[in-house]
């Protein structure tokens, strides 16, 4: 009986640790992974919009200005959420402090560049480039360091082997009970010890339900990874490359010459690149249709942007600016909206799967504790019966 209680206690402790880790994945680690991706995407979007606003100069570009403000607000909101979720991880909090300081610098440079552009003051373009440099060399690496920490923690928490140890202990407990029943049947008159049979049934039911709960948890983690998170990561890379492409294109109009590096970015996205990978990662017909729409809108944007770059190659800066601010801008916004819609679905699916993993184990702590105690009572009863008969 004492051995059964000990096995139950150890199994409960292991299960309690596993349940706590699973709850943390659903309520903290997974949320940090999503939030850091939103921060990266928001700053990249803000950078592209800021260049478009700057290009408009005194004429302004209210739509792009609105997109810039919305992007920076989303980035700030996501950073605040990350700060609440990372717990006591010192490196992450240090990175968040650095990001906050760099964000203030970035926003100040963007605003200074915008005002200088409106007033046609010298140095406006240089301030804009400095702001973009702060984004790429200071903000982005710190955000990535937090994302790397969250990913390592996510991998560790979702690959825990404690559930296997708990299952093995329950199997041992069932084996011990069956062995005890066999030995008692040889020592005493009755072949069947009803209380011991009841204890064995309790532990077998406990084993089956625990195995089902652990299997559901692992399946939910696998689905979260393969059906949602892989797609999220690819979509994030698509967004980052697209925003970089847009920023280079609009900066080229400021410089009055065709941009370098656009072909490399397009090659990374097209053909067998990221756009094709996003379609391959789609797990439903609806997601595949969404991926096809993203590809179509990207093609439309690239076609318009090439018209702008061709105009720059001919030295027609006015035509390039008109296309960049008009048709190319509209096509890019349509592309970005489509990517965001796909990301929203995948993020929701990812978090829902993590919650499913957490829910699958909510009842397990109480079940193992109560089942082990009940089985121990039956074992005590069974041995007491045999001792009484022996006397």
Structure, described:
By secondary structure, the chain is mostly helical. The protein has one domain. The chain has twelve helices and no strands. The protein has helices spanning 2-56, 62-85, 90-118, 124-158, 162-187, 194-255, 262-269, 274-281, 285-313, 317-325, 327-359, 364-390. Helix 1 runs antiparallel to helix 11, helix 6 (194-255) runs antiparallel to helix 7 (262-269) and helix 8 packs antiparallel against helix 9. The longest helix has 62 residues, at 194-255. The protein is elongated and about 105 Å long. The chain starts with a helix and ends with a helix. The model has no long low-confidence stretch (mean pLDDT 82).
Key descriptive features of the protein:
391 residues; mainly alpha
**What is the CA-atom radius of gyration, in angstroms?**
30 Å
The main pleated sheet reads as: none
Number of strands: 0
How much β-strand is present in the residues?
under 5%
Number of helices: 12
Q: What is the share of helical residues?
A: over 70%
Query: Can you give the mean pLDDT?
Result: 82
Would you kindly provide a brief summary of this structure?
By secondary structure, the protein is an all-alpha fold. Helices cover about 90% and strands about 0% of the residues.
What is the topology?
Layout: H1 2-56, H2 62-85, H3 90-118, H4 124-158, H5 162-187, H6 194-255, H7 262-269, H8 274-281, H9 285-313, H10 317-325, H11 327-359, H12 364-390
Helix pairs in contact: 1-2, 1-3, 1-4, 1-5, 1-6, 1-11, 1-12, 3-4, 5-6, 6-7, 6-8, 6-10, 6-11, 6-12, 8-9, 9-10, 9-11, 10-11
């Amino acid at each position: 009986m004492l051995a059964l209680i000990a096995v139950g206690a150890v199994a409960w402790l292991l299960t309690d640790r596993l349940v706590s880790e699973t709850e943390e994945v659903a309520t903290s680690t997974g949320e940090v992974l999503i939030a850091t991706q939103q921060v990266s995407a928001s700053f990249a979007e803000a950078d592209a919009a800021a260049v478009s606003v700057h290009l408009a100069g005194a004429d302004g570009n209210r739509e792009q200005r609105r997109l810039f403000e919305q992007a920076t607000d989303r980035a700030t909101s996501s950073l605040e959420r990350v700060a609440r979720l990372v717990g006591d991880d010192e490196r992450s909090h240090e990175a968040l402090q650095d990001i906050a300081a760099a964000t203030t610098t970035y926003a100040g440079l963007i605003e200074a560049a915008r005002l200088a552009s409106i007033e046609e003051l010298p140095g406006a373009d240089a301030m804009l480039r400095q702001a973009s440099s702060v984004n790429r060399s200071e903000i982005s690496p710190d955000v990535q360091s937090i994302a790397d920490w969250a990913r390592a923690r996510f991998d560790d928490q979702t690959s825990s082997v404690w559930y296997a140890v708990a299952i093995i202990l329950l199997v041992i407990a069932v084996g011990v009970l069956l062995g005890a029943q066999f030995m008692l049947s040889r020592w005493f008159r009755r072949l069947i010890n009803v209380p011991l049979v009841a204890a064995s049934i309790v532990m077998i039911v406990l084993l089956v339900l625990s195995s089902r709960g652990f299997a559901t948890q692992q399946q939910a983690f696998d689905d979260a990874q393969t059906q949602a998170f892989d797609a999220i990561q690819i979509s994030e890379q698509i967004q980052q490359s697209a925003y970089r492409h847009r920023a280079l294109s609009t900066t080229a109009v400021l410089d009055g010459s065709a941009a370098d590096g656009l072909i490399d970015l397009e090659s990374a996205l097209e053909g067998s690149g990221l756009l094709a990978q996003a379609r391959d990662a789609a797990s439903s017909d609806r997601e595949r249709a969404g991926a096809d729409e993203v590809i179509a809108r990207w093609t439309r944007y690239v076609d318009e942007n090439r018209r702008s770059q061709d105009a720059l190659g001919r030295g027609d800066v006015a035509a390039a600016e008109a296309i960049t601010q008009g048709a190319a801008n509209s096509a890019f916004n349509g592309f970005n909206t489509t990517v965001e819609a796909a990301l929203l679905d995948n993020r929701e699916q990812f978090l829902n799967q993590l919650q499913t993993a957490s829910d699958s184990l909510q009842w397990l702590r109480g079940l193992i504790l109560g089942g082990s105690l009940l089985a121990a009572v039956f074992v005590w009863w069974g041995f007491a019966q045999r001792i009484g008969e022996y006397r």
